[in-house]
């Protein structure tokens, strides 16, 4: 667990170590099957996998991008740029969302397991069943890492979490835990998921009222809570920017007074949350059909 946080070279060596990732996944599967999701070894295994999934899209060898995730039936060679799992250009990204996602291997080995749906479901199971905060945080954090990029892999993981594995109820429950780091990581994961336009309505329907309910009445006084508040505002921004319906959901959940109160805080120490709230307010005001409702 300590070695897995030793930086890019350490992660690379551990990912390449034959049988290591498979053994970690095997152990966690056994713990879940035996209804023992709270033992210390399971926590250690999940924390290692969390660390090994950090910057995975950027650090994997080019061969994975070519053999597993690059599928460009409608994209010419001129559109491609070097890098794991595809490109960053807007044109390619838009086309990418229209392209079928690659089929995953039925029996993944080694590093391939890190983004496989089997491990995604394991993380979601631990989030739901474990009561150890570190295990919950590491499971959420691994999913956060896997959904952080812009290529086909993060998109595939996000769709698995939201649509194939029905993971939103488990993540939603983590918004209401008392442990600040778990809550912060859950919100960060939802922020990543909410960047996918195809998932925004599902997320808004399942989670938006809960996001509003955990927003504070004003800017909180500690840094972790302040960062969580900022992430909630940016998640709500993603969910409402292109949807009047979702903006109305925020309104009906009594979110507007909270967002206004957060936005008017002028303390430099906690300006991150105020700035995020102001961005959200500006976006909400662009829905001109809701102006009369806002004023009421």
TrEMBL record:
It comes from the Eukaryota. InterPro entries: ARM-like, ARM-type_fold, Armadillo, Plakophilin/d_Catenin. Its main location: other. One of its GO terms (cellular component) is cytoplasm. It is found in: Cell junction. Keywords: Cell adhesion, Cell junction, Repeat. Residues 94-107 have a biased composition (Basic and acidic residues). Residues 79-109 are annotated as: Disordered. SUPFAM superfamilies: ARM repeat. GO terms for biological process: cell-cell adhesion; desmosome organization; heart development; intermediate filament bundle assembly; protein localization to plasma membrane. Belongs to the beta-catenin family. This is PKP2 protein. It comes from Pheucticus melanocephalus. The lineage of its organism: Eukaryota, Metazoa, Chordata, Craniata, Vertebrata.
């Amino acid at each position: 667990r300590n070695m897995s946080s030793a930086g890019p070279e350490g992660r690379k060596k551990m990912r390449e170590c034959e049988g290591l990732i498979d053994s970690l996944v095997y152990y966690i599967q056994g713990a879940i099957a035996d209804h023992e999701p709270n033992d210390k070894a399971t926590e250690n295994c999940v924390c290692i996998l969390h660390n090994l999934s950090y910057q995975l899209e950027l650090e994997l060898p080019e061969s994975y991008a070519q053999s597993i995730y690059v599928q460009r039936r409608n994209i010419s060679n001129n559109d491609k740029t070097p890098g794991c799992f595809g490109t960053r250009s807007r044109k390619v990204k838009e086309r990418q969302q229209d392209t079928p996602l690659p089929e995953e291997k039925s029996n993944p080995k080694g590093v391939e397991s890190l983004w496989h749906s089997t491990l995604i479901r394991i993380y979601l199971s631990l989030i739901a069943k474990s009561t150890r905060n570190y295990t919950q945080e590491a499971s959420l954090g691994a999913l956060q890492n896997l959904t952080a990029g812009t290529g086909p892999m993060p998109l595939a993981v996000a769709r698995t979490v939201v649509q194939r594995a029905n993971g939103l109820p488990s993540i939603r429950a983590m918004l209401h835990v008392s442990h600040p780091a778990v809550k912060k990581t859950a919100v960060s994961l939802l922020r990543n998921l909410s960047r996918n336009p195809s998932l925004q309505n599902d997320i808004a329907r399942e989670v938006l009222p809960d996001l509003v309910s955990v927003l504070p009445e004003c800017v909180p006084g500690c840094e972790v809570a302040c960062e969580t508040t900022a992430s909630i505002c940016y998640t709500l921004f993603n969910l409402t920017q292109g949807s009047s319906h979702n903006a109305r959901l925020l309104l009906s959940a009594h979110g507007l007074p909270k967002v206004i109160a957060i936005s008017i805080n002028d303390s430099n120490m906690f300006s991150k949350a105020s700035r995020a709230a102001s961005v959200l307010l500006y976006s909400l005001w662009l829905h001109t059909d809701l102006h009369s409702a806002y004023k009421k």
